[in-house]
Amino acid sequence: MTLPTIEQLKTNKSRLRSLQMFRGFAALLVLLYHATTVSTRIYHQEFLGSFFKFGNSGVIFFFVLSGFIIYYVHADDLGKPRKFKSFIIKRFIRLYPIYWIVSLTVLPVYFIFPSFGESFHRRLDVILQSLILYPQNPQLSVPIIAAAWTLSYEVFFYLIFSCLILLKPKISLRIVVVWVLGIIVGNYYAIAHSLETPNFIIFYFLLSPINLNFIFGCLAAYLVLRLRDDRIKISYILLLIIIGVGLYIRGNYNIGSTIIIFSFALLEDLRAIAIYPLLCYLGDASYSIYLTHGNIVAVLARFTLALKINSLLGTSLTMLVIVAITIVCGCGFYSYIEKPLLVFLRKKMATRAQ
Question: Dihedral (C-alpha) 334, 146, 244, 286: value to the nearest 10 degrees?
Fold first, then answer.
C-alpha cells in the first residue's frame, strides 16, 4: 500500500487533536506540581496530600510530544535544504516572541520587589542568557521564567532537527546514532567515575538523558506514519494504552508517554476517538499556561496568605481556586496576546515568502 505524504496526512485536521489535548494535559500536570511545591513553601501545608508531586512528569511528556509533532509534521522536509529557512523561522516565531513578552513583563518585578526573585535574576549575564534561552547551570542560576529551562532543550532539539533537514538522510542517521550513543556512554562514564560536578554543558545538556525523550517522540511518529494496516492497529491499541498508562503510573514517564502518544495517534488515524473542543483549546493555550503559571501561582499564594484566605478556606481549596484562576489567566493570555501575535507574524512570514 502506498504511503500518503505528510501533506496529505496533515489535511486530516482531526489527526492532531489528541496531541493538542495532551499538550494541555502536560501543562496542567506541571501547574499542579508547582501548586504543590508553592503550597508547601508558602503555606507550610500540603496541597491535596502532595498527590501531584508526580506532576513534574508533564515536562517529560512535553518533550516526547514535541519530538512526535516535529517529526510528524516535518518528516518530508528531512534532507531538503530548501526547507531549512522555513523551519527555523516557524520554530522561532512559535517559541521566542511570546516568551520574550512574558520574561520582560516579569523582569521589572524582580527589581521593584526583590523578594519575588533571586539576586542572580538581576545580573545582566543571567538576563541575557534567559532571553536567548542559553542553558544555565541550575546550581548557579535559573532563567527569569523558572520553567524556561525546558525551552533550552527544546531549542537544542530544533537545532539538531534543522541540521537533519540540511544534510543527506544517511549522514543524518549517523549523527543521531552518534548523539544517542554519546548520551548513553557519557552518562555511564559520569556515573562510573562518580563525577560530582561534570561539565554542565556537555554532560547535563548536550548529552543529557532528557534529550532521549525527543528521540522517543520521533520514533513514535515514524511508526505512526508507516503503520498503515488497520487490523494491526486495532489488535494492539488497547493493549498499548494499558501498558503505557501502567508504565506512566509506575514512574517510567518517558516510555509511558511515548506509548500513550503513539496509541492515541493510531486511534485518531482510525477515527475511533473524538476530542472535545475545550480540550483542544487547553492544548492551544498550553504554552501560555506553561510560561505564566509559575509567577501567577506564587503571587496569588502570597496574596491569600496575607489576607488569611487559606485559613478560611483551607489549604487545598485555596490552591484549587488559585489553580483555576491561573488556568483562566493563561487562557486569556493565549486568546488576547499569543494567538493574535502568532497570526500577525505568520501572515508577515507568508507575505515575505511570496
Answer: 0
Rounded Cα–Cα distance for residues 17 and 25 (Å): 12
Count the neighbouring beta carbons within 10 Å of the beta carbon of residue 124: 7
Q: What DSSP assignment string belongs to 222-267?
A: HHHHH---HHHHHHHHHHHHHHHHHHHHTT-HHHHHHHHHHHHHHH
User: Of 282, 214, 242, which is closest to residue 61 (Cα–Cα)?
Assistant: 214
The rounded Cα 297 to chain-centroid distance in angstroms is 19
The answer, yes or no, to whether residue 292 has pLDDT greater than 60, is yes
Are 24 and 334 in contact by the 8 Å Cβ rule? The answer is no
Q: At what angle do helices 315-333 and 286-306 cross, to 10 degrees?
A: 140
* 3-state secondary structure at position 59: helix
**Would you say 34 and 145 are in contact if contact means Cβ atoms under 8 Å apart?**
no
Nearest to 295, CA basis, from 120, 143, 151, 152 = 143
Of 263 and 192, which is predicted with more confidence? 263
Q: Does pTM surpass 0.85?
A: yes
**Burial class for 98, CB neighbours closer than 10 Å (0-12, 13-18, 19+):** buried
**Highest mean pLDDT out of 15-29, 235-249, 275-289, 324-338:** 324-338
Determine the Cα–Cα distance for residues 215 and 157; give it in Å rounded to an integer. Answer: 9
Q: Locate 239 and state its grid cell.
A: 493493549
Q: Which three cell numbers stand for residue 249?
A: 503510573
Q: Contact at 8 Å (CB) between 165 and 80? A: yes
**How far is Cα 156 from Cα 204, in angstroms, rounded to an integer?**
13
**Structure confidence by residue, pLDDT tens digits, 94-153:** 999 999 999 999 999 888 888 777 788 888 988 999 999 998 887 778 899 989 999 999
Using CB atoms within 10 Å of the CB of residue 218, give its burial: 0 to 12 exposed, 13 to 18 middle, 19+ buried: buried
Give yes or no for a contact between 20 and 278, defined as CB atoms under 8 angstroms apart: no
